[in-house]
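Researcher: Let's do a round of design. I'm pasting the C-alpha cells now; please hold your answer until I've finished.
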C-alpha cells in the first residue's frame, strides 16, 4: 500500500498548531535525537534472536506511548496499516537520504511494532544503569547541538546587564508518583501463641498504613524479592508495589514518588521554541538542589557553557548553591529570596491582622558607603539588603531604623576571570545612589569573598532582585520563564493516566520522561528549522 506523504512544513495559516500523526512521525524520524540515542545503546551480542526493529524505532514507540498516553493506545494506532505505512515510508526516505550505500540501509518489517517489543527492550536492557546514564548524556549532547542549530546561545546577543533570552536557561523539579498505591513499610506483628512482637516489611495501602496487604520477603540464596499474600501466605505472581520509588510527604504521609529535574531554554520571540537540555532524577529524598547543581555542571562543561548568561530556578537553590553558580560557573542566578524564619508570635500576629500570606522580609546589613562632598565633608549612607534588593536605611525622629524612599539603582554588571581555589569568576555590580547632597556610585560584590565559608551575601543579595520591578525590570522579564518549565512538566504528567507513572522502577520512570522530552524537542526543532532544512542537515 502506498500512502501520499506531505513534503512541506506544517501550514502556517491553519487553525491548530498541533501536529497530526504524519507530522509527528516526520519529527521523530527526521530529527537527530532518537537516532543519536539509539547509537548510545550497545549492539546485541550473537546469542539469542536478533532484534526485529532498529533501536530508533523502539525508542519512537516509547515516545508515541507518551503521545497517546499509553502503550496500548500507541500499539492500536500503529496496528492500523495506513499508519504503519507512513512510518515505513518516512523511514525509507530517511535511509535513502542518510545512508549512501544501499546495502547498509535498514528496512522495517511489514508488521507494525507492538507493545511487547517495547516492553521487552525496556525491561531487558534500556533500564540498565549504564545504558540509562549513556542515554541521558547523549540526550544532553544532541539537544545542545539542536539548540545551536536553531541559533540559541549566540555570543553576540545580550549582555550581563541585559541578558538575552536565548542565552538563559531555566529549570524546575517535579514529583512523579509511582504506578502502585502500595508502598513498603515496617509493620509490627504479634505472635498469637507466644505474644512475641516482630517487625516485618509489608506492602500497605496509604489509607490503611497499619494493615499489611502482602509481606515482602527476600530469598536468602538468590536475593530475589517476592511477596506473600498477608491472609493466605501464598506467593504472589508479582510485587504489589514499586520498591524503587522514594518516600515523600508531598502527596501524603505514605505516598511514593520520584523527583525529576529538567533544564530548558527557549526563544521568547517564537512559539514552540522550547528545547529541553538536561534531565536528572534525585538520588534520595529532598535532594532537588543537588540534582539541579549536578545538571548545571554538565551544561557548564558542554559547548554552550561559555555562552550561558543566567540561570532561572525556584527557591530550592539557597545561598551555598547561588554562591557556587556565581563563582564557579560564572552565571547570574535569577532566584527569589526565601522568606526569613518567623516565630510563632509573629505568625499569630499576621494571622490576627489578616496578613497570613505576607511573609517576613529578609534583611542583611551590608555596611556603610561614603562619598566626599564639594566642601570636603564626608557623607555616609547605610546599605542593607532587603528581599534581594539593595536599599538605603536611616534613623527617623523616634530613633527607629527605616528604609529611605530612594533606592540604589543598578547601572552595570561586570564579571572577571579569577581562577583561584575552585573559584573561576568574580562579580562586581555598580549602584548609583541619588543623594540629595551629591549623587554618587559604588561597587558591590554579590557573593562571598575568597576563603570565606559564609554564603549570606549570595543568600540575601540578587543582581536582578524580585522587588521594585519598575527600577529593575530584568527579574520580571527573566523569572517568568520558570513558569514554562512548570508547564513542560504539566504537559508530561498529562500523558500519564491518573497522574501516575506507567513504568516501574527509578530508571524506567526516568526513561519514560526522557522519551517524552525527546519527542517535544524533535517536534519543536522541526517546527523551527523547517522540513526542507532538516532533510539537508540529515543528508549532510
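Researcher: That's everything. Go ahead.
Model: Designed sequence:
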Amino acid at each position: 500500500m502506498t500512502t501520499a506523504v506531505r513534503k512541506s512544513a506544517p501550514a502556517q495559516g491553519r487553525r491548530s498548531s498541533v501536529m497530526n500523526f504524519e507530522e509527528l512521525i516526520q519529527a521523530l524520524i527526521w530529527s537527530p535525537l532518537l537516532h543519536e540515542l539509539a547509537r548510545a545503546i550497545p549492539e546485541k551480542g550473537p546469542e539469542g534472536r536478533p532484534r526485529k526493529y532498529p533501536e530508533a524505532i523502539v525508542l519512537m514507540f516509547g515516545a508515541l506511548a507518551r503521545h497517546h498516553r499509553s502503550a496500548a493506545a500507541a500499539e492500536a494506532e500503529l496496528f492500523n496499516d495506513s499508519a504503519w505505512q507512513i512510518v515505513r515510508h518516512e523511514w525509507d526516505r530517511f535511509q535513502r537520504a542518510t545512508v549512501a550505500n544501499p546495502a547498509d540501509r535498514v528496512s522495517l518489517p511489514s508488521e507494525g511494532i507492538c507493545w511487547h517489543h517495547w516492553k521487552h527492550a525496556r525491561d531487558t536492557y534500556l533500564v540498565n544503569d549504564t545504558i540509562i546514564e549513556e542515554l541521558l548524556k547523549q540526550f544532553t549532547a544532541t539537544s545542545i547541538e539542536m539548540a545551536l542549530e536553531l541559533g540559541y546561545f549566540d555570543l553576540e546577543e545580550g549582555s550581563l546587564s541585559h541578558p538575552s533570552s536565548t542565552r538563559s536557561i531555566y529549570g524546575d523539579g517535579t514529583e512523579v508518583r509511582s504506578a502502585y498505591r502500595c508502598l513498603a513499610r515496617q509493620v509490627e506483628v504479634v505472635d498469637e501463641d507466644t505474644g512475641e512482637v516482630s517487625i516485618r516489611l509489608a506492602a500497605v495501602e496509604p489509607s490503611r498504613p497499619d494493615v499489611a496487604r502482602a509481606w515482602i520477603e527476600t530469598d536468602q540464596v538468590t536475593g530475589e524479592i517476592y511477596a506473600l499474600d498477608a491472609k493466605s501466605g501464598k506467593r504472589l505472581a508479582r510485587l504489589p508495589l514499586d520498591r524503587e520509588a522514594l518516600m515523600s510527604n508531598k502527596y501524603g504521609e505514605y505516598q511514593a514518588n520520584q523527583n525529576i529535574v529538567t533544564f530548558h531554554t527557549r526563544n521568547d520571540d517564537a512559539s514552540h521554541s522550547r528545547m529541553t537540555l538536561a534531565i536528572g532524577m534525585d538520588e534520595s529524598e529532598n535532594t532537588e538542589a543537588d540534582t539541579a547543581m549536578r545538571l548545571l555542571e554538565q551544561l557548564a562543561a558542554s559547548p554552550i557553557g561559555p555562552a550561558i548568561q543566567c540561570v532561572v530556578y525556584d527557591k530550592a537553590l539557597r545561598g551555598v548553591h547561588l554562591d557556587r553558580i556565581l563563582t564557579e560557573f560564572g552565571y547570574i542566578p535569577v532566584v527569589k529570596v526565601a522568606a526569613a524564619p518567623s516565630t510563632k508570635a509573629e505568625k499569630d500576629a499576621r494571622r490576627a491582622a489578616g496578613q497570613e500570606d505576607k511573609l517576613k522580609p529578609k534583611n542583611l546589613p551590608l555596611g556603610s558607603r561614603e562619598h566626599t562632598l564639594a566642601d570636603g565633608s564626608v557623607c555616609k549612607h547605610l546599605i542593607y539588603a532587603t528581599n534581594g534588593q539593595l536599599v538605603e536605611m536611616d534613623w527617623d525622629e523616634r530613633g527607629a531604623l527605616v528604609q529611605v524612599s530612594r533606592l540604589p539603582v543598578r547601572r552595570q554588571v561586570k564579571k572577571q576571570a579569577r581562577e583561584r581555589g575552585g573559584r573561576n569568576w568574580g562579580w562586581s555590580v555598580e549602584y548609583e545612589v541619588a543623594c540629595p547632597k551629591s549623587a554618587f556610585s559604588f561597587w558591590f560584590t554579590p557573593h562571598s569573598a575568597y576563603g570565606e565559608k559564609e554564603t549570606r551575601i549570595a543568600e540575601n543579595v540578587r543582581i536582578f532582585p524580585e522587588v521594585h520591578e519598575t527600577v529593575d525590570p530584568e527579574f520580571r522579564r527573566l523569572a517568568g520563564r520558570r513558569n514554562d518549565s512548570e508547564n513542560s512538566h504539566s504537559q508530561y504528567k498529562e500523558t500519564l493516566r491518573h497522574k501516575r507513572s506507567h513504568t516501574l522502577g527509578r530508571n524506567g520512570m526516568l526513561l519514560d520522561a526522557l522519551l517524552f522530552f525527546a519527542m517535544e524537542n524533535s517536534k519543536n526543532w522541526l517546527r523551527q528549522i523547517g522540513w526542507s532544512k532538516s532533510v539537508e542537515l540529515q543528508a549532510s
